[in-house]
Amino acid sequence: MLARALRPRRNFSTARPRCSPENSKTAVALPPTVANSSLLRSTRDDALWTPGLLWRDGDRVGVGHAAERRGDREIQEVDLRAEDEGGRPTEKMNVYQAIRSALHTVLEKDHSSLIFGEDVSFGGVFRCTMGLADSFGQERVFNTPLTEQGIAGFGIGLATMGHTAVAEMQFADYIFPAFDQLVNEAKYRYRSGGMFNCGSLTIRSPCSAVGHGGLYHSQSPEAYFLQASGLKVVVPRSPIQAKGLLLSAIRDPNPVLFLEPKILYRSAVEQVPTTDFELPLGSAEVLREGKDLTIVSYGPPLYTIETALHHLKHPGEELDKLVPQDLRNLSVELIDLRTIVPYDIETVVKSVSKTGRCLIVHEAPQMGSVSSELAAEIQQRCFLHLEAPVKRLAGWDTPFGLAYEKFYLPDHIRILDGIIETMRY
Protein backbone atom coordinates (compact mmCIF):
# COMPACT_ATOMS: atom_id res chain seq x y z
CA MET A 1 0.00 0.00 0.00
CA LEU A 2 0.98 3.64 -0.52
CA ALA A 3 1.63 4.34 3.16
CA ARG A 4 3.85 1.30 3.58
CA ALA A 5 5.90 2.03 0.45
CA LEU A 6 6.57 5.66 1.40
CA ARG A 7 7.04 5.20 5.13
CA PRO A 8 10.87 5.19 5.27
CA ARG A 9 11.12 8.51 3.42
CA ARG A 10 8.42 10.47 5.29
CA ASN A 11 8.72 13.30 7.76
CA PHE A 12 6.08 11.99 10.15
CA SER A 13 5.57 15.30 11.94
CA THR A 14 4.24 17.08 8.85
CA ALA A 15 3.55 14.78 5.91
CA ARG A 16 0.62 12.55 5.03
CA PRO A 17 -0.82 11.13 1.82
CA ARG A 18 -3.11 13.55 0.02
CA CYS A 19 -5.46 10.95 -1.43
CA SER A 20 -7.26 7.87 -0.24
CA PRO A 21 -5.89 4.47 -1.34
CA GLU A 22 -6.90 3.52 -4.88
CA ASN A 23 -7.23 -0.08 -6.01
CA SER A 24 -8.63 0.54 -9.48
CA LYS A 25 -5.56 -0.94 -11.16
CA THR A 26 -6.61 -4.35 -9.91
CA ALA A 27 -8.97 -5.93 -12.44
CA VAL A 28 -12.17 -7.23 -10.90
CA ALA A 29 -14.93 -9.20 -12.55
CA LEU A 30 -17.76 -7.56 -10.63
CA PRO A 31 -18.37 -3.83 -10.10
CA PRO A 32 -17.44 -2.46 -6.68
CA THR A 33 -20.04 -2.02 -3.96
CA VAL A 34 -19.90 -0.48 -0.51
CA ALA A 35 -18.77 -3.88 0.77
CA ASN A 36 -15.55 -3.89 -1.28
CA SER A 37 -15.12 -0.22 -2.15
CA SER A 38 -11.60 1.11 -2.68
CA LEU A 39 -12.79 4.31 -0.98
CA LEU A 40 -12.90 2.48 2.36
CA ARG A 41 -9.81 1.93 4.51
CA SER A 42 -9.79 -1.74 5.35
CA THR A 43 -6.31 -2.01 6.89
CA ARG A 44 -4.77 -0.48 9.99
CA ASP A 45 -2.08 1.39 8.01
CA ASP A 46 -4.66 2.92 5.68
CA ALA A 47 -6.80 4.00 8.63
CA LEU A 48 -3.89 5.72 10.35
CA TRP A 49 -2.99 7.52 7.12
CA THR A 50 -6.41 9.18 6.84
CA PRO A 51 -5.78 12.68 5.40
CA GLY A 52 -6.25 15.51 7.89
CA LEU A 53 -6.45 13.25 10.94
CA LEU A 54 -5.39 14.93 14.19
CA TRP A 55 -5.01 13.05 17.45
CA ARG A 56 -6.59 14.51 20.61
CA ASP A 57 -4.75 12.85 23.47
CA GLY A 58 -5.88 15.08 26.33
CA ASP A 59 -7.82 13.59 29.23
CA ARG A 60 -10.27 16.51 29.19
CA VAL A 61 -11.38 17.91 25.84
CA GLY A 62 -14.22 20.44 25.65
CA VAL A 63 -15.75 22.78 23.09
CA GLY A 64 -13.60 25.45 21.46
CA HIS A 65 -10.88 25.60 24.12
CA ALA A 66 -7.76 26.70 22.24
CA ALA A 67 -5.44 25.82 25.12
CA GLU A 68 -6.52 22.19 24.92
CA ARG A 69 -5.45 21.99 21.28
CA ARG A 70 -1.75 22.17 22.12
CA GLY A 71 -1.77 18.39 22.29
CA ASP A 72 -3.11 18.03 18.73
CA ARG A 73 -0.68 16.36 16.39
CA GLU A 74 -0.53 14.55 13.08
CA ILE A 75 0.68 11.00 12.55
CA GLN A 76 4.19 10.14 13.72
CA GLU A 77 6.46 7.13 13.50
CA VAL A 78 5.40 5.85 16.91
CA ASP A 79 1.74 5.67 15.80
CA LEU A 80 2.53 3.17 13.05
CA ARG A 81 4.24 0.63 15.28
CA ALA A 82 2.48 -2.60 16.08
CA GLU A 83 -0.19 -2.23 18.75
CA ASP A 84 1.76 -4.36 21.22
CA GLU A 85 4.71 -1.99 20.71
CA GLY A 86 2.72 1.13 21.58
CA GLY A 87 1.24 1.94 18.16
CA ARG A 88 -2.26 3.31 17.66
CA PRO A 89 -4.96 0.64 17.90
CA THR A 90 -7.73 0.30 15.32
CA GLU A 91 -10.88 -1.77 15.30
CA LYS A 92 -13.21 -2.95 12.55
CA MET A 93 -16.34 -0.80 12.76
CA ASN A 94 -19.35 0.11 10.71
CA VAL A 95 -20.76 3.64 10.73
CA TYR A 96 -23.13 3.29 13.69
CA GLN A 97 -20.37 1.72 15.78
CA ALA A 98 -17.99 4.55 14.84
CA ILE A 99 -20.59 7.13 15.85
CA ARG A 100 -21.13 5.34 19.14
CA SER A 101 -17.35 5.35 19.69
CA ALA A 102 -17.27 9.11 19.10
CA LEU A 103 -20.15 9.72 21.50
CA HIS A 104 -18.50 7.54 24.15
CA THR A 105 -15.31 9.59 23.79
CA VAL A 106 -17.22 12.85 24.22
CA LEU A 107 -19.05 11.65 27.33
CA GLU A 108 -15.81 10.37 28.81
CA LYS A 109 -13.69 13.48 28.18
CA ASP A 110 -16.25 16.30 28.46
CA HIS A 111 -18.14 16.09 31.75
CA SER A 112 -20.53 18.86 30.66
CA SER A 113 -21.76 16.80 27.68
CA LEU A 114 -25.32 15.47 27.46
CA ILE A 115 -26.93 13.26 24.80
CA PHE A 116 -30.68 13.26 24.34
CA GLY A 117 -33.46 12.58 21.85
CA GLU A 118 -36.23 10.12 21.10
CA ASP A 119 -35.28 6.63 22.34
CA VAL A 120 -31.56 7.40 22.73
CA SER A 121 -31.34 5.86 26.20
CA PHE A 122 -32.44 2.55 24.63
CA GLY A 123 -29.78 2.84 21.93
CA GLY A 124 -31.76 4.75 19.32
CA VAL A 125 -33.55 3.32 16.30
CA PHE A 126 -30.18 2.68 14.61
CA ARG A 127 -28.29 1.65 17.81
CA CYS A 128 -25.85 4.59 17.72
CA THR A 129 -26.27 5.28 21.46
CA MET A 130 -26.49 1.66 22.57
CA GLY A 131 -25.12 1.13 26.09
CA LEU A 132 -24.20 4.77 26.69
CA ALA A 133 -26.93 5.32 29.29
CA ASP A 134 -25.69 2.23 31.19
CA SER A 135 -22.10 3.54 31.13
CA PHE A 136 -22.73 7.22 31.93
CA GLY A 137 -26.14 7.29 33.58
CA GLN A 138 -29.66 8.36 32.67
CA GLU A 139 -28.85 11.93 33.74
CA ARG A 140 -26.43 12.34 30.81
CA VAL A 141 -28.04 10.08 28.16
CA PHE A 142 -31.81 10.35 28.24
CA ASN A 143 -35.01 10.22 26.23
CA THR A 144 -37.11 13.22 25.30
CA PRO A 145 -40.76 13.54 24.31
CA LEU A 146 -41.58 13.19 20.63
CA THR A 147 -41.19 16.87 19.76
CA GLU A 148 -38.44 17.97 17.37
CA GLN A 149 -39.02 21.66 18.06
CA GLY A 150 -38.72 20.95 21.77
CA ILE A 151 -35.53 18.90 21.32
CA ALA A 152 -33.86 21.71 19.36
CA GLY A 153 -35.03 24.42 21.77
CA PHE A 154 -33.96 22.37 24.78
CA GLY A 155 -30.54 21.83 23.17
CA ILE A 156 -30.11 25.54 22.50
CA GLY A 157 -30.94 26.28 26.12
CA LEU A 158 -28.53 23.66 27.43
CA ALA A 159 -25.73 24.94 25.20
CA THR A 160 -26.41 28.53 26.25
CA MET A 161 -26.03 27.47 29.89
CA GLY A 162 -22.61 25.98 29.20
CA HIS A 163 -23.32 22.33 28.42
CA THR A 164 -22.10 20.37 25.40
CA ALA A 165 -25.48 19.40 23.97
CA VAL A 166 -25.74 16.51 21.49
CA ALA A 167 -29.31 16.08 20.30
CA GLU A 168 -30.69 13.39 18.00
CA MET A 169 -33.55 13.90 15.57
CA GLN A 170 -34.71 10.36 14.91
CA PHE A 171 -35.08 10.99 11.16
CA ALA A 172 -33.97 14.04 9.16
CA ASP A 173 -37.37 13.99 7.45
CA TYR A 174 -38.89 15.10 10.78
CA ILE A 175 -36.50 17.97 11.41
CA PHE A 176 -38.80 20.59 9.90
CA PRO A 177 -40.84 21.30 13.07
CA ALA A 178 -37.46 22.38 14.54
CA PHE A 179 -36.62 24.55 11.53
CA ASP A 180 -37.39 27.87 13.24
CA GLN A 181 -35.26 26.97 16.26
CA LEU A 182 -32.30 25.91 14.11
CA VAL A 183 -32.24 28.74 11.57
CA ASN A 184 -33.26 31.57 13.92
CA GLU A 185 -32.60 30.77 17.56
CA ALA A 186 -29.26 29.00 16.96
CA LYS A 187 -27.91 32.44 15.92
CA TYR A 188 -28.01 33.38 19.58
CA ARG A 189 -24.39 34.56 19.72
CA TYR A 190 -24.90 37.00 16.82
CA ARG A 191 -28.31 38.16 18.02
CA SER A 192 -27.05 38.88 21.54
CA GLY A 193 -23.86 40.60 20.43
CA GLY A 194 -21.76 37.86 21.98
CA MET A 195 -23.43 37.93 25.41
CA PHE A 196 -24.87 34.42 24.96
CA ASN A 197 -23.65 31.47 22.94
CA CYS A 198 -25.19 28.14 21.92
CA GLY A 199 -22.26 27.04 19.75
CA SER A 200 -21.79 23.84 21.75
CA LEU A 201 -24.97 22.38 20.22
CA THR A 202 -24.78 19.48 17.75
CA ILE A 203 -27.85 17.98 16.07
CA ARG A 204 -27.41 14.41 14.79
CA SER A 205 -29.95 12.98 12.36
CA PRO A 206 -30.19 9.95 10.03
CA CYS A 207 -30.78 11.06 6.44
CA SER A 208 -30.98 9.98 2.79
CA ALA A 209 -32.40 6.93 1.03
CA VAL A 210 -32.44 3.50 2.61
CA GLY A 211 -34.04 1.50 -0.21
CA HIS A 212 -37.56 1.30 1.19
CA GLY A 213 -38.08 4.46 3.22
CA GLY A 214 -40.42 6.37 0.96
CA LEU A 215 -41.66 9.89 1.53
CA TYR A 216 -40.94 10.29 5.26
CA HIS A 217 -37.78 8.23 5.72
CA SER A 218 -35.56 8.80 2.67
CA GLN A 219 -35.26 12.54 2.16
CA SER A 220 -32.05 14.59 2.06
CA PRO A 221 -32.89 18.01 3.59
CA GLU A 222 -29.38 19.53 3.70
CA ALA A 223 -30.13 22.23 1.10
CA TYR A 224 -32.81 23.78 3.33
CA PHE A 225 -30.02 24.90 5.69
CA LEU A 226 -27.71 26.49 3.12
CA GLN A 227 -28.87 29.97 4.13
CA ALA A 228 -28.86 29.32 7.88
CA SER A 229 -25.80 31.47 8.52
CA GLY A 230 -23.83 30.30 11.56
CA LEU A 231 -25.04 26.69 11.33
CA LYS A 232 -22.58 24.16 9.90
CA VAL A 233 -23.82 21.09 8.00
CA VAL A 234 -21.78 17.87 7.68
CA VAL A 235 -22.40 14.56 5.83
CA PRO A 236 -19.85 11.71 6.35
CA ARG A 237 -19.26 8.86 3.89
CA SER A 238 -17.65 6.15 6.06
CA PRO A 239 -16.88 5.01 9.64
CA ILE A 240 -13.56 6.88 9.96
CA GLN A 241 -15.13 10.02 8.54
CA ALA A 242 -18.18 9.64 10.79
CA LYS A 243 -16.12 9.40 13.98
CA GLY A 244 -13.57 12.09 13.15
CA LEU A 245 -16.05 14.59 11.74
CA LEU A 246 -18.56 14.03 14.56
CA LEU A 247 -15.90 14.67 17.21
CA SER A 248 -14.93 17.87 15.37
CA ALA A 249 -18.59 18.88 15.04
CA ILE A 250 -19.34 18.41 18.75
CA ARG A 251 -16.22 20.37 19.78
CA ASP A 252 -16.65 23.13 17.19
CA PRO A 253 -17.65 26.47 18.77
CA ASN A 254 -20.60 26.76 16.36
CA PRO A 255 -23.87 24.81 16.16
CA VAL A 256 -23.56 21.89 13.74
CA LEU A 257 -26.15 19.76 11.93
CA PHE A 258 -24.58 16.31 11.48
CA LEU A 259 -26.50 14.25 8.90
CA GLU A 260 -25.80 10.50 8.91
CA PRO A 261 -26.70 8.51 5.75
CA LYS A 262 -28.71 5.65 7.18
CA ILE A 263 -27.94 3.25 4.29
CA LEU A 264 -24.28 3.33 5.40
CA TYR A 265 -24.88 2.57 9.10
CA ARG A 266 -24.17 -1.13 8.59
CA SER A 267 -22.94 -1.43 5.01
CA ALA A 268 -19.77 0.72 5.21
CA VAL A 269 -17.02 -0.96 7.25
CA GLU A 270 -13.48 0.25 7.95
CA GLN A 271 -10.64 -0.12 10.39
CA VAL A 272 -11.17 2.86 12.72
CA PRO A 273 -8.69 4.24 15.28
CA THR A 274 -10.13 3.58 18.72
CA THR A 275 -8.39 6.57 20.34
CA ASP A 276 -9.57 10.18 20.14
CA PHE A 277 -9.08 11.95 16.79
CA GLU A 278 -10.69 14.65 14.68
CA LEU A 279 -11.05 15.44 10.99
CA PRO A 280 -11.34 19.04 9.78
CA LEU A 281 -14.70 20.67 9.10
CA GLY A 282 -15.00 22.82 5.98
CA SER A 283 -12.42 20.74 4.12
CA ALA A 284 -13.16 18.53 1.10
CA GLU A 285 -11.11 15.40 0.40
CA VAL A 286 -9.73 14.40 -3.00
CA LEU A 287 -10.41 10.66 -3.09
CA ARG A 288 -8.92 10.08 -6.55
CA GLU A 289 -6.76 12.39 -8.59
CA GLY A 290 -7.42 12.88 -12.31
CA LYS A 291 -6.92 15.29 -15.19
CA ASP A 292 -9.94 14.92 -17.51
CA LEU A 293 -13.07 15.34 -15.36
CA THR A 294 -13.94 16.43 -11.81
CA ILE A 295 -16.81 14.70 -10.00
CA VAL A 296 -18.01 16.25 -6.73
CA SER A 297 -20.34 14.49 -4.32
CA TYR A 298 -20.89 13.53 -0.68
CA GLY A 299 -22.35 10.62 1.25
CA PRO A 300 -23.71 7.44 -0.42
CA PRO A 301 -23.52 8.63 -4.08
CA LEU A 302 -19.72 8.42 -3.85
CA TYR A 303 -20.03 4.63 -3.98
CA THR A 304 -22.48 4.81 -6.90
CA ILE A 305 -19.96 7.00 -8.73
CA GLU A 306 -17.30 4.37 -8.09
CA THR A 307 -19.59 1.77 -9.68
CA ALA A 308 -20.19 4.06 -12.67
CA LEU A 309 -16.44 4.53 -13.15
CA HIS A 310 -16.00 0.76 -13.12
CA HIS A 311 -18.60 0.40 -15.89
CA LEU A 312 -16.92 3.19 -17.81
CA LYS A 313 -13.68 1.20 -17.87
CA HIS A 314 -15.26 -2.28 -18.03
CA PRO A 315 -18.69 -1.76 -19.63
CA GLY A 316 -19.57 -5.42 -20.19
CA GLU A 317 -21.76 -6.77 -22.96
CA GLU A 318 -24.88 -4.71 -22.20
CA LEU A 319 -23.06 -1.37 -22.17
CA ASP A 320 -20.22 -2.13 -24.59
CA LYS A 321 -21.81 -0.39 -27.60
CA LEU A 322 -22.86 2.63 -25.52
CA VAL A 323 -19.50 3.51 -23.94
CA PRO A 324 -17.05 5.15 -26.39
CA GLN A 325 -13.68 3.43 -26.57
CA ASP A 326 -11.75 6.68 -26.16
CA LEU A 327 -13.41 7.37 -22.78
CA ARG A 328 -12.68 4.03 -21.15
CA ASN A 329 -9.39 5.19 -19.71
CA LEU A 330 -10.77 8.55 -18.60
CA SER A 331 -8.81 10.17 -15.77
CA VAL A 332 -11.41 11.26 -13.20
CA GLU A 333 -10.80 13.36 -10.08
CA LEU A 334 -13.29 12.42 -7.36
CA ILE A 335 -13.97 14.84 -4.50
CA ASP A 336 -15.91 14.20 -1.29
CA LEU A 337 -17.32 17.55 -0.15
CA ARG A 338 -17.93 16.27 3.43
CA THR A 339 -18.94 19.66 4.85
CA ILE A 340 -21.93 21.16 3.04
CA VAL A 341 -21.85 24.43 4.99
CA PRO A 342 -19.30 25.92 4.70
CA TYR A 343 -18.22 23.95 1.62
CA ASP A 344 -14.62 23.88 0.43
CA ILE A 345 -14.87 25.82 -2.82
CA GLU A 346 -11.09 26.24 -3.08
CA THR A 347 -10.47 22.50 -3.50
CA VAL A 348 -13.26 22.24 -6.08
CA VAL A 349 -12.06 25.27 -8.06
CA LYS A 350 -8.49 24.01 -8.10
CA SER A 351 -9.67 20.68 -9.51
CA VAL A 352 -12.04 22.10 -12.12
CA SER A 353 -9.44 24.61 -13.27
CA LYS A 354 -7.21 21.61 -13.99
CA THR A 355 -9.76 19.30 -15.64
CA GLY A 356 -12.03 21.84 -17.36
CA ARG A 357 -15.14 19.71 -16.78
CA CYS A 358 -17.29 19.06 -13.72
CA LEU A 359 -20.12 16.73 -12.69
CA ILE A 360 -21.94 17.18 -9.35
CA VAL A 361 -23.95 14.30 -7.88
CA HIS A 362 -26.24 14.09 -4.83
CA GLU A 363 -29.50 12.47 -3.73
CA ALA A 364 -31.35 15.65 -2.77
CA PRO A 365 -33.61 17.34 -5.37
CA GLN A 366 -31.82 19.57 -7.87
CA MET A 367 -33.73 22.83 -7.48
CA GLY A 368 -32.14 25.14 -4.89
CA SER A 369 -29.60 22.46 -4.00
CA VAL A 370 -25.93 22.11 -3.11
CA SER A 371 -25.25 21.41 -6.78
CA SER A 372 -27.02 24.63 -7.77
CA GLU A 373 -24.79 26.69 -5.51
CA LEU A 374 -21.63 24.83 -6.48
CA ALA A 375 -22.37 25.07 -10.21
CA ALA A 376 -22.88 28.84 -9.93
CA GLU A 377 -19.61 29.28 -8.01
CA ILE A 378 -17.68 27.09 -10.45
CA GLN A 379 -19.05 29.01 -13.43
CA GLN A 380 -18.09 32.31 -11.82
CA ARG A 381 -14.59 31.28 -10.75
CA CYS A 382 -13.60 28.83 -13.52
CA PHE A 383 -15.36 30.28 -16.57
CA LEU A 384 -12.20 30.63 -18.68
CA HIS A 385 -11.13 27.07 -17.82
CA LEU A 386 -14.41 25.29 -18.57
CA GLU A 387 -14.66 23.05 -21.65
CA ALA A 388 -18.29 22.09 -20.97
CA PRO A 389 -21.22 23.27 -18.84
CA VAL A 390 -21.23 22.04 -15.25
CA LYS A 391 -23.43 18.93 -15.19
CA ARG A 392 -25.76 18.22 -12.26
CA LEU A 393 -27.21 14.81 -11.42
CA ALA A 394 -29.59 14.77 -8.47
CA GLY A 395 -32.90 13.48 -7.19
CA TRP A 396 -35.94 14.56 -9.14
CA ASP A 397 -37.95 17.63 -8.12
CA THR A 398 -40.85 15.48 -6.95
CA PRO A 399 -41.92 13.96 -3.63
CA PHE A 400 -39.70 11.02 -2.75
CA GLY A 401 -41.47 7.92 -4.04
CA LEU A 402 -41.71 4.53 -2.38
CA ALA A 403 -42.52 2.29 -5.34
CA TYR A 404 -40.07 4.15 -7.57
CA GLU A 405 -37.25 4.88 -5.12
CA LYS A 406 -34.60 3.35 -7.40
CA PHE A 407 -35.71 5.58 -10.25
CA TYR A 408 -35.57 8.67 -8.04
CA LEU A 409 -31.90 8.36 -7.11
CA PRO A 410 -29.02 9.08 -9.51
CA ASP A 411 -27.88 5.50 -10.20
CA HIS A 412 -24.70 4.38 -11.95
CA ILE A 413 -26.36 4.45 -15.39
CA ARG A 414 -27.43 8.08 -15.01
CA ILE A 415 -23.95 8.96 -13.77
CA LEU A 416 -22.29 7.08 -16.62
CA ASP A 417 -24.52 8.86 -19.11
CA GLY A 418 -23.68 12.21 -17.46
CA ILE A 419 -19.96 11.51 -17.76
CA ILE A 420 -20.26 10.68 -21.46
CA GLU A 421 -22.43 13.73 -22.16
CA THR A 422 -20.01 16.05 -20.35
CA MET A 423 -16.97 14.62 -22.14
CA ARG A 424 -18.68 14.74 -25.54
CA TYR A 425 -19.80 18.37 -25.25
Molecular structure report:
Residues 1-10 have a biased composition (Basic residues). Residues 93-267 form the Transketolase-like pyrimidine-binding domain. One of its GO terms (biological process) is response to nutrient. This protein is α/β, with parallel strands linked by helices and 425 residues long. The strands form four sheets. Strands 4-3-5-6-8-7-14 form a seven-stranded mixed β-sheet, with helices on both faces. It has a five-stranded mixed β-sheet with strand order 11-13-12-15-16, with helices on both faces. Strands 1-10 form a two-stranded antiparallel sheet. The protein has helices at residues 2-6, 44-48, 95-109, 132-136, 148-160, 179-183, 188-191, 239-251, 264-267, 301-313, 316-319, 345-355, 370-382, 405-408, 412-423; strands at 54-55, 90-94, 113-117, 141-143, 164-168, 201-207, 232-234, 256-261, 269-273, 277-278, 285-288, 293-297, 332-336, 339-341, 358-365, 391-395. Strand 15, helix 13 and strand 16 (391-395) form a beta-alpha-beta unit. The protein is globular, with a radius of gyration of 21 Å. It has 15 helices and 16 strands.
